[in-house]
Specification:
The complex is a heterodimer of chains A (about 280) and B (about 250). With about 280 residues, chain A is mainly α. Chain A is built from eleven helices and no strands. In chain A, helix 3 crosses helix 10 and helix 10 runs antiparallel to helix 11. The two termini of chain A are about 40 Å apart. Chain B is built from ten helices and ten strands. The two termini of chain B are about 30 Å apart. Classes of the chains: A mainly alpha (about 280), B alpha/beta (about 250). At the A-B interface, helix 7 and helix 8 of A face helix 2, strand 6, helix 3 and helix 6 of B.
Chain lengths: ~280, ~250
């Protein structure tokens, strides 16, 4: 009896420790970014593009990267959703546990595991073959490829968790599978779909390697799909690589902005998921 | 007998497992037919053959015929959605759709083409009344269906099923998850409804079968042991196994 209680206590402590580790790491990252980035963060950083000599420590901001990142990740997430939602519904509501579904899931899982630099290199090769230059469009396409497996598998899992009886209730009334999918399955899984979108957006906006060759970088605000575009991860990367402490500090400010954007999207989607789950059957 | 459903040489398989064996049955029109038998005897499988629900499970196969109003619902080229529209289903546990009370009932109507506001409203009210739920929900029609008690949810499912105007009502132990009062509500509704619908009910509650049944089917190990008018089967069972079951021996 004593030994079992010791075991219980031991594993409880282990659990608390691993929980503390997770929270601690999150806290450390936030503190680092805040302490190092906050002093450099001012209104000009958020509202101006880099002026001449910005990378030597002179005036300007990273508005180009903020807007660029929102365009890149927003566009990629929309594109990935347009492709991924039909796949997830097809997997969850039509193919279910069939062999084909297993193959599609395996393919998506492998794609999920591919490092983003490989997507970047793949996209770059493809763009060269097509005669395209680094551009907003190229970045969106490659980021969409990166986000697609994440988004699709996350939605697929949510749809698979749904009780089959809800689907059956709709079918029993003579609804087709498509009607059931669009009017019942999506409604039931909306909170989970919102979470999946957030996950994909977060991955997309934070990725540097895939946009390095495909979207390029520019000090200007994005004006065209065919022009290069700046992004926050690359802004961090380039500024951190300069020998000037002021510029390095701005890198942390850019990282802070990136973190805050992800945080806002995160909280926003939580709030949205809460609102959407009003009608969800448990 | 005026048969609504005629089942001929029906066999059902889950993989290699033969769950229904050469079923021959007539199900009477405008009566309550109760299918009873011990667990695993194929009651629910038989029910699922009547609205082509068995095929929703992977690896199932059916041979034979199920004629509803003389037409084989397994004939090639038959529109499954039409078959299912004609058969309402009450499941073991109520599963409302993830929408408001109003939309739950309006769902089937909208799918089948009734979209005008006033017509829709009148129909929703009518079917909620038929299911005996209107008085309880009329002030919160646009609240989530999940806010209802489980007994109310089952009546909502009844209203929702009736709204697409089926001819045949299937119930798969529809009161088993409910408290006694809610179960009584459902039983009463079914008795009211049998004028207009043929009702087929699976139950393992003998007393419920005796209260509701006009016609009884007793199944055992995938076979129909005995079928006939309720009073005959209950009072003078012809088969030894039926007698044993009625006396509670298994």
């Amino acid at each position: 009896m004593k030994r079992r209680q010791l075991e219980e206590g031991f594993f409880k402590v282990l659990m608390i420790l691993s929980y503390a580790l997770v929270v601690g790491i999150l806290g450390l990252i936030l503190v680092t970014v805040l302490v190092k980035g906050l002093p450099a963060l001012n209104l000009a950083m958020l509202t101006q593009t880099p002026k001449g000599g910005y990378y030597l420590g002179k005036e300007g901001g990273i508005l180009n990267a903020i807007i660029g990142s929102l365009y890149l990740a927003g566009g990629a997430t929309l594109l990935a959703l347009a492709l991924g939602l039909p796949i997830a519904i097809n997997l969850g509501a039509y193919l279910r546990k069939s062999r084909l579904a297993g193959a599609v899931r395996l393919a998506l899982d492998v794609l999920w595991g591919i490092p983003s630099i490989v997507y970047g290199a793949f996209g770059f090769t493809l763009m060269l073959a097509l005669g395209m230059r680094a551009s907003l469009l190229g970045g969106i396409l490659v980021l969409a490829l990166l986000e697609l497996p994440i988004l699709t598998r996350a939605m697929d899992e949510v749809i698979r968790m749904m009780p089959a009886e809800i689907e059956h209730a709709s079918l029993a009334m003579g609804a087709t599978r498509l009607e059931t999918a669009t009017r019942v399955v999506i409604r039931q899984t909306l909170p989970g779909i919102a979470t999946a979108i957030l996950l994909a957006f977060g991955r997309g906006i934070g990725d540097a390697a895939s946009v390095l060759f495909t979207a390029g970088y520019t000090d200007r605000l994005p004006t065209s799909l065919m022009r290069p575009v700046a992004s926050l991860p690359l802004a961090v990367f380039f500024q951190l690589g300069t020998p000037f402490p002021e510029v390095q500090q701005r890198a942390y400010a850019a990282a802070l902005v990136l973190t805050v954007i992800v945080l806002i999207v995160s909280l926003g989607s939580r709030w949205l998921a809460g609102r959407l789950s009003r009608f969800v059957i448990r | 007998m005026n048969a609504h459903v005629q089942i001929r040489n029906l066999n059902a398989f889950y993989g290699d497992n033969r769950a229904l064996k050469d079923i021959q049955l007539d199900i009477p029109r405008s009566q309550i037919t109760v299918i009873m038998g011990p667990s695993g005897c194929g009651k629910t499988t038989l029910l699922k053959c009547l609205n082509r629900f068995l095929e929703l499970n992977d690896g199932t196969r059916i041979t034979g015929q199920v004629l509803v109003d003389g037409e084989d619902i397994y004939a090639p080229g038959v529109d499954v959605t039409e078959i299912r529209k004609k058969t309402g289903l009450l499941a073991q546990r109520p599963y409302p759709l993830p929408m408001s009370i109003y939309d739950n009932v309006a769902y089937g109507l909208r799918i089948h083409g009734i979209k005008k506001g006033r017509e829709l409203e009148a129909a929703v009210r009518h079917y909620l009344e038929v299911a005996g739920l209107w008085e309880e929900v009329k002030d919160r029609l646009h609240a989530p269906a999940t806010g209802l008690s489980i007994g109310q949810q089952q009546r909502l499912c009844l209203a929702r099923g009736l709204a697409v105007e089926p001819e045949l009502l299937l119930g798969d132990e529809p009161t088993s998850a409910l408290d006694p009062i809610s179960a009584q509500h459902i039983e009463k509704r079914l008795l009211d409804l049998k004028q207009q619908y043929s009702v087929v009910l699976v139950t393992h509650i003998l007393r419920q079968a005796k209260r509701l049944a006009d016609y009884v089917i007793f199944m055992y190990l995938g076979e129909v042991v005995e079928a006939g008018p309720a009073h005959e089967v209950f009072e003078h069972p012809r088969q030894e196994r039926t007698r044993a079951y009625l006396e509670g021996q298994f």
